[in-house]
Every structure is written in C-alpha cells, then in structure tokens.
Design brief:
single chain, Rossmann fold, 2 domains, 13 strands, globular, Glyco_trans_4-like_N, transmembrane helix, Glycosyltransferase_grp1, glycosyltransferase activity, transmembrane
Length: 394
Amino acid sequence: MRILMVTPYVPFPPLSGGQVRSYNLIKHLSRNHKITLFCYYRDEAEKESLGELLKYCDKVVYVKRRPAWSPLHILSAGLTFFPFLLLSTYYSPFLKKSIKVELSRGKYDLIHCETFYIMPNIPKTQIPILLVEQTIEYLVYQKFVREFKLLLLKPFMYLDIWKLKTWEKYYWKRASRLATMSEDDKKFINEVFPEVGVDVIANGVDMDFFDQTKHHKSDKPTVLFVGQFRWLPNLDAAKFLVTEVWPLIKKRIPQARLLVVGRNPTQEILDLGKAPDVSIRSDVEDIRTVYGESNVLLAPIRNGKGTKYKVLEAMATGVPIVGTPLAAEGIAITHGVHALIGNTPVELAEYTARILSDKKEAVKISKNANKLVRDTYDWGKIAAELNQVYRDIV
C-alpha cells in the first residue's frame, strides 16, 4: 500500500515516547508499504534526520512548527472556536496545502495521523484515515488546569479545554478508524461513541537494542525515574516523587539515591536536585546506561493515559518496576508478578524499599516482566498488528 503518514514531530532520533513509537513503526511497516512522511520540526538541526528516515520512507516533508506563545495565537484562540493547542502550534495552512497537492499527485491507499491535533491539516478526501490517539489529550490538560495555581486564568483555560474536547471528539467521528494504546482508552472512546471503530495498537520496545544493556550497579541502591519533561504528566510525577515519595524511601533505605533522567527539564525540575541524594540528568545519550546502573524504576504517574515507554524499557532491561496503576496502563502487568503497583506515597515507598532490600523478589519480578515484554511487546509484533488494521481499513 501507499501510506501518507503525518506526525507532530520528527521521528528520528527517537528521544520522546512519540518519536520512539513512530520511528519503530515506520521502520517495520516499510517492509510492506511505501510511506510518505510529513512531520513538524522545531529547529533546522532536526532536518539532519533525513538520511535515516529515507532508509524507510519514499519521501519526507518537513514543516516548520510555529512558536506557540504569540499575541496573535492567544487572541485568535480567545476570539474563535479553535483551542489554543490547535491554533498556536499544529494547524498550518502550508501543511494542509502540501498534503492536498501530494494526494492529488499520488494514488494513496491510506492516511495515518498520529494524534488528533494533526487532523485539521488533512483536506477533504475519500481516502480512509486512521487516527492514532497516543493519549486522550483533553483529559491530560483538564487535570493540569485543575491543579493550576493562578485562579484568574482558570476560566479561560477551562474554556480552551472545552474547545479541545469538542474538536477531539469531532475528529474521532471524522476518522475512518481509531487506534489507541490501551483497552482503557478504547473503552473510554466507545462509551462516548459506540459506533466508532477502535483498535488497540500498544506501544512496543526494541528488544535487540535493550538486550545489549550492560549492568553495573552502584554501591548505593539506586532508584530511577525517566521522563521527557515537555510532557506535563512527567513534570507532575517527578515533583510528586521527590517531594512526597522520596522522603519516605530515605527513611526506610537511608543510603539510597535517586536518578531523575529526562530531556528539557524546567527550572522547577532542576531545583528538585537540591533534595538529599537526588541527581537530575538531562544529558544521557544512551538510556541503557542509566537502566544498567539502577536497581528499580519508580514511575509514580498520576496523569496521562496510554502506555509508558519507561515501563516497557525497564522490563526489557531487567530492571524491576514500582509504579501507579496509570504507569502500568496498556501493559498486561499483574501486581506482584511483573511489578509492584501502588497508589499512595506510602505504598510506593514501601514497595520500592521492598525491591531494594529483597533481592530474591526483585529478580523474580524482573524475570517475569522481561518474559512478558519479550513475548508480547516487541515492535515486530506490534507492527504486524498495525499492518492488519491497515488491511482491514482499506
């Protein structure tokens, strides 16, 4: 088939969760399909990815992502029915026109859109559209606004969330088919629109890559948190971990240290490094190095639906996991078998201390998790499932 794929980021290098997903799916899907990729970029250096992407794509078109915070965008969002997220960053008349021209030149079988906020750029067409919802966006921003401190801005932010919710649901119905990362997200969408076809295409992991992880543990028991800090749920989780969970862990395991690893840390995240035995690292080139020196991954995720790559990667490297139910969402994890799952700071701290002090349980959990991810979540298997969805749609 000829596939036109549109992503809100350049898929390579695979640094964020979305990039990891798109890059690996493109790599595997290219064995059966011809792919034309349209993608947003932030700065010119990202275009250096062209050589790598052309290994798997017939054509790659880069579109400059506009700066979000401009008076025009803020004014437009206030005076129109469009939410700020769509107007400020992801709607591009140039992209829409470019896609229209491309569709007129080539005979495409399917349009694949990653995230709903790309959808306004798709012109009217009879070609089937697969919309992939990596998370349900308005729910993420809704929780963020509830906890936002500036009360005067909240009414405007809630109005924008209402717009976001309206448009997200509109594009659910406009797409020929939807794909989500988890059964929970599929169920949520079908409760709103029972008539919409939804498939679950989970996230995966590159087992060949993570099998090469070299383990060299520190003298100090090491707890690891991983997250890309442009993603609001990771900001929330890191702050929650350091301020509420970490002090309880230190009481139980005084010699423990915490590594908080992720790109684009805000000043607020950097300031978390002032806590005892907490290190903030944004310069990790190979994520396997920090998995290799860690005794447990702690993922206290409280917001954001969809599968968490940090959890799959830890499973692939043999690092035992402690997390919230949201951290395990979309993965067939059983508490006490593949990970330890808790809700409160006390539970998360207790389970982390258990992993750090009970080597036998840590080994049991990590082995079970590794077998699960190897059997179910390898990218080759995930791509095969998506390939079948493509065939069903067309």
